């Protein structure tokens, strides 16, 4: 099989597994089976291993102000209140998948809902701009525009290629003039991180096609509130 086909097959498998794990994770969260960030991270690792895959990277689970750190290492912080960023990926046949969802524990305030909807809008609209030949830099700046006043809290790139390393080219970033090519698999992951308050990130994996894109991550993106 050609390398490109191998890559696509492996990453699609990873995306399907991510969706399945997220679905199971939500069920367990609703049944209050997780007490801490570490409990969720442990569950994700166990599920990825069970599926015969490797970890693309150590899962990130970060609630409340912990989520301000994009690469937060899960701790024993209790899942009591606030947005919880859950970022994980599997590795099949060396190729990485990478998905993030942000759920909310406890009641979501009107302002929190507003910020979440901005991030979601940036994710959804930027995905529609993906196609062969498109400028990663241009899509990055579109994300900033869509985040409006919250763009000042968006400090990382909008996305990256997925290959045998998780952060590959092309980059969709402020200072990188990379163009998307048919066959690339990239992430689209806008985020808002307000110091000492909250972090929200929504990340999907997207296949670049000649005329557009194919969304590989299928997990729901509506705001999910977990009663506590
Ligand atoms: Mn990523």
Structure, described:
It is built from four helices and 14 strands. It has helices spanning 3-30, 37-50, 110-128, 136-147; strands at residues 54-55, 60-63, 82-88, 90-92, 95-96, 99-105, 159-161, 168-172, 185-188, 191-194, 198-201, 204-208, 213-215, 225-226. The mean pLDDT is 98. Strands 2-3-6-14 form a four-stranded mixed β-sheet, with helices on one face. A three-stranded antiparallel β-sheet has the order 1-4-5. It is of the alpha+beta class and 228 residues long. The protein is globular. 32% of the residues lie in helices and 24% in strands. It binds manganese (II) ion. Manganese (II) ion binds next to loops. The site of manganese (II) ion has 4 residues, from loops.
**Would you list the SSEs in sequence order as H and E?**
HHEEEEEEHHEEEEEEEE
- Helix content, binned percent: 25-40%
Beta-strand percentage range: 15-25%
Q: In which order are the strands of the major sheet placed? A: 2-3-6-14
List keywords for this structure.
alpha+beta; globular; binds manganese (II) ion
SSE diagram, text form:
Blueprint (H helix, E strand, L loop, with lengths): L2 H28 L6 H14 L3 E2 L4 E4 L18 E7 L1 E3 L2 E2 L2 E7 L4 H19 L7 H12 L11 E3 L6 E5 L12 E4 L2 E4 L3 E4 L2 E5 L4 E3 L9 E2 L2
Parallel strand pairs: 6-14
Antiparallel strand pairs: 1-4, 2-3, 3-6, 4-5, 7-8, 9-12, 10-11, 12-13
The site of manganese (II) ion has 4 residues, from loops.
Short recap of the structure:
This protein has 228 residues and is of the alpha+beta class. The chain has helices spanning 3-30, 37-50, 110-128, 136-147; strands at 54-55, 60-63, 82-88, 90-92, 95-96, 99-105, 159-161, 168-172, 185-188, 191-194, 198-201, 204-208, 213-215, 225-226.
